[in-house]
Amino acid sequence: MDALTAVPSPTNEPVLDHASGSSERADLERRVAQLWNEKHDLPHWIGGRQVLGGHSRTEVTAPFEHRHALGVLDGATEAEARAAVDAAKAAAPMWRGLTFDDRAAIFLKAADLLSGPWRSTLNAATMLGQAKTAIQAEIDAACELIDFWRFNVHFARTILGEQPMVNAKGVWNRSDHRPLDGFVYAITPFNFTAIAGNLPTAPALMGNTVVWKPSPAQALAAHFTMALLEEAGLPPGVINLVHGDGVAVSNVALADQDLAGIHFTGSTGTFRKLWRAVGENIANYRSYPRLVGETGGKGFILAHPSASARVLRTAMLRGAFEYQGQKCSAASRAYVPRSIWSGLRDDVVASTEALTMGPTTDFANFMSAVIDSRAFATHKAAIDRAHATASVRVLAGGTYDDSVGYYVRPTLLEVADPGDESFTTEYFGPILAVHVYPDDEYDSVVRQLESVTDYALTGAVIAQDRAAIARATETLRFAAGNFYINDKPTGAVVGQQPFGGSRASGTNDKAGAATNLLRWTSPRSIKETFVPPTHHGYPHME
Ligand SMILES: NC(=O)c1ccc[n+]([C@@H]2O[C@H](COP(=O)([O-])OP(=O)(O)OC[C@H]3O[C@@H](n4cnc5c(N)ncnc54)[C@H](O)[C@@H]3O)[C@@H](O)[C@H]2O)c1
Ligand SMILES: N[C@@H](CCC=O)C(=O)O
């Protein structure tokens, strides 16, 4: 158990703008050029050793130039998965035996390393491996991950300080915030280096050891995240990274009796598969595994006739097309009153067509390629369907080209039927469906959009009329875990807008908040009686 020291008060890491001529721009350009010309081996990290199994070597390529290899990863077999699980179990007594301060210091140091000497490396790896522009990499790989590490320490200390309010006379009650009784399996998505870094480290901060399976498409930045954590002093075996598609790792990890939790972010389909596998094996675990999963979304923008057209336009363009629409929070459906759309449509169409798209090595681009051939095929099919559907008009974009990179032009659809698949299906790409409604039907539009899709992650209302804002806020209470008023539905900041949704969008444990960290503890209540009774009878018996 830990002494109660104070931890540094967290503040959000300032976003560097990488303007031309700035020193951070020079650093980043240099690091981008270096990583572009290197080809890294991306080994597993098991028990502190970098392991190259050599079973199925897969090239990690730049999405905007898919013939250019940035690294080679080694897909884990069940042998590596077994070794990772065993290493996590072996390291557990040492790790939970450290004081909280010792664990916290490692992640605070990691945050400072990332804020300083490691910033350009993680940003550059994210720009090249995941095709993020400089600003999108900076808010993710640098700022959000630094914030996760600093704010988690603050929230964890608060949790550990939580003790029973009442001690009866002669009694001392204590809460021992134990880690879980087993290992945690962290499975992370391609789209955020910060999420990939947070999912294994949040349970580790609370004293758990972890098997981490990153997305193959995020493997380059994941590799440097492990190297950074090692430099920060993370002991061997606390986080064991295994690469690959995850099937072999799940075969081992989900079948192990000591699986104590899954920390997942990714698609709804994958999370449901994992949950099902845990359910089928439930009688074989020593404890009930904690299942935390943040999953898919179908973010909305709802405009009221009182909305500012300029605010709406910016929310649509940034919300839908930044990072190629590959944020779970992205705006992928918009509801716009006819009176506003008639004056705004040409501007939105022209602005969409003007968005610059190309390699992230060219800092002038607003967006780049989608992540891989599977994503490209999904968007191609959605665009082809839109072209072929009478009730859908393709207003902007609607083209794609994968000859060099997986490029999909930002696409704006005007859709007559608000129940169309473009309002219900997560494409996870740069496709925004717009439904134009008669101004006097605002309230029925709000009711329809509330439950048209299974997802409930993000949403925004754009309006000046306070009563309209209030009605949307109330009616859409369960339609979004992150709800924005007069802003885009993306860009949640740790410590400011804890992030997560419900329904098919996840367990809503809110990454980077105390609610998430609580899932990685299993409190023990200790009652100590100073002068215990020595007679078993009661006064009424005498
Ligand atoms: N709600 C949120 O906070 C949030 C944040 C980011 C992304 N997302 C969602 O993530 C999705 C995009 O990410 P993605 O394409 O990487 O998702 P995905 O579900 O395809 O993959 C997520 C991770 O699961 C792994 N995986 C797949 N099958 C597995 C198995 N059987 N065993 C172990 N691991 C397995 C993948 O390799 C990857 O590491 C979108 O649906 C997006 O909305 C949600
Ligand atoms: N937290 C990010 C979304 C993460 C999902 O991809 C945002 O708010 O835009």
List the topology elements.
Layout: H1 23-37, E1 40-42, E2 44-46, E3 49-51, E4 56-62, E5 65-75, H2 78-97, H3 100-115, H4 119-129, H5 134-161, E6 171-179, E7 183-187, H6 193-205, E8 210-213, H7 219-232, E9 239-241, H8 247-253, E10 259-265, H9 268-280, E11 290-294, E12 299-303, H10 309-321, E13 331-337, H11 338-354, H12 373-388, E14 392-396, E15 400-401, E16 407-408, E17 411-415, E18 431-437, H13 442-451, E19 455-456, E20 458-462, H14 466-475, E21 482-485, E22 502-503, H15 514-518, E23 521-529
Parallel strand pairs: 1-5, 7-8, 7-10, 8-9, 10-11, 12-13, 12-20, 13-18, 17-18, 20-21
Antiparallel strand pairs: 2-3, 4-5, 6-23, 14-17, 15-16, 19-22
Bound molecules: nicotinamide-adenine-dinucleotide and 5-oxo-L-norvaline.
Unreliable spans are: none
Radius of gyration of CA atoms, rounded to a whole number: 25 Å
- The helicity comes to 25-40%
Q: How are the strands of the biggest sheet laid out side by side?
A: 14-17-18-13-12-20-21
Oligomer: single chain
Which ligands occur here? nicotinamide-adenine-dinucleotide, 5-oxo-L-norvaline
Q: Report the mean per-residue pLDDT as an integer.
A: 97
How much of the residues is beta strand, in percent?
15-25%
Q: Which structural category fits the helices and strands?
A: alpha/beta
State the major sheet: 7 strands, mixed
What is the total tally of β strands?
23
Looking at the structure, what is the overall shape? globular
How many DSSP helices? 15
The CA-CA distance between the termini, in Å, is: 43 Å
